[in-house]
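Me: I'm a chemist; would you kindly supply a protein sequence with its structure tokens?

Assistant:
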Amino acid sequence: MWMHRLATSGTARTCCALAMGIAAAACGDGSTTTKPPLVDERIIAFTSDSDNAPQSGGDGTGGSSIFVMHADGTHKSRLTSPHFLDANPSWSPDGSSITFESSRTPAGIWIMNADGSNQRPLLTDAAFESPTELRWSPDGHVVAFNAYVNDISNVRVIVIANTDGTHAHRLTTNATGEQWPSWSPDGSHIAYMAIAGPIGYSIFVSSANGSAQQQLTFAADGYPAWSPDGAQIAFVNFDDSFHPQIFVVKADGSDRRALSTGGINADPAWSPDGQQLAFDRNANDSVSSSPREIFRMNADGSDARAITSFGSVPGAFGSAWAPAWKPTP
């Protein structure tokens, strides 16, 4: 179930069968109570296939685009063409640039200005095999991303490189399928998901040079996101593979707890102040193919609500996923 996300960016994800969907009608606690309106002009970038319908300027072939919106769900704007598979945006630390995965030629990771201008390739198949999931170090000097390596068949690893792709090297030498890097706020450590025996993926942490690797969680967990204060790591738990939930754990592995309830949840992303999390959820709790939407909730799991509603647009493809908050220096 959780393979579809990178499939939409033109790259097959090698993760297990985790459910990656997102949101729409119901709140995290299943409540139908009307919530007071949000007013939040901070910016969230995200992926959507909703604007690929012919009446929206797309060709109807199933492309996806990078969008931005205010964090209250208003002022949505498409930044990339609906004619490609563009997905998984990531902001540079100063908020001036956005990287994203693209099926365009050459395929790989592209970069653009925050307003969508000057779109150009950054890390492509010419240098790395299927680069994905790029994340900037807090100082903006290096990046971590995933790629296949020639000496290990069908296994993705985390690669560390300068922002132009030079001086690239593997984070660790373990053939355990490391994916989804997330930097600690001080840049000293990287959290990631890696295969941990029969349970599949769990959360690991190592120093930024790959040393001192340790397993942080001991359950079926993935997609870590380090909090801005460095105290916590949010992640997705797949113990119930049909209804994965957003969890959080302290950076030392203690105080593990669930934040979301119900739905099929994925892609947790912290607000710059650490007070909220954006994430994905399927509109229908029991149907993994139902439309996905961007939700947000407070850091304690309260006040979960949808901030997109693409699934309700007639004639649109109806999904949104992979939220990324713009940094606020």
Q: What stands out?
A: The longest helix spans residues 4-7. The CA atoms of residues 22 and 292 lie 3 Å apart. DSSP finds one helix and 24 strands in the chain.
